[in-house]
Amino acid sequence: MPRVEVELHIAAPPDRSWAAVVDVESYPACMENVRSLTVVEQNGPRERTTAWSVHLKGSVLEWTEAERIDEEARRFDFHQVSGDLAHFVGHWAIRPADDGGSLVSLHVEFDIGIPLLSEMLNPVAATALRENAEQMLTALERRLTGSV
Question: For the domain bounded by 3-145, which CATH number is listed?
């Protein structure tokens, strides 16, 4: 199953980076590839369900995911409960950097769900998802540091 892993150093303390990452409802305002994102259900401070719509290489990808938030570890795991892909799971994580900044990472594992075309489509989808993840992390960096 294809995996996408992207990490970016952000010159902001881990607590600030974590606050920005878990504030998913602000993503559409700062990430041009996120069309919409809504918290559909909040089950206490550690679990929620969100509905996503993102631009991905000229297409729109939509899904609903269940998220489990671990404030102490600064990580939230997610998995698709419905949507355009057959399988979509991953996590966001924040680690402290040696310079007082943050290492922000996004990890995704997916399956497009078309076995006969997966050999051809999975590399294309992986590239598109990697570029999308990089854009999301760069947008978080701009939001946190004010850089252009």
Answer: 3.30.530.20
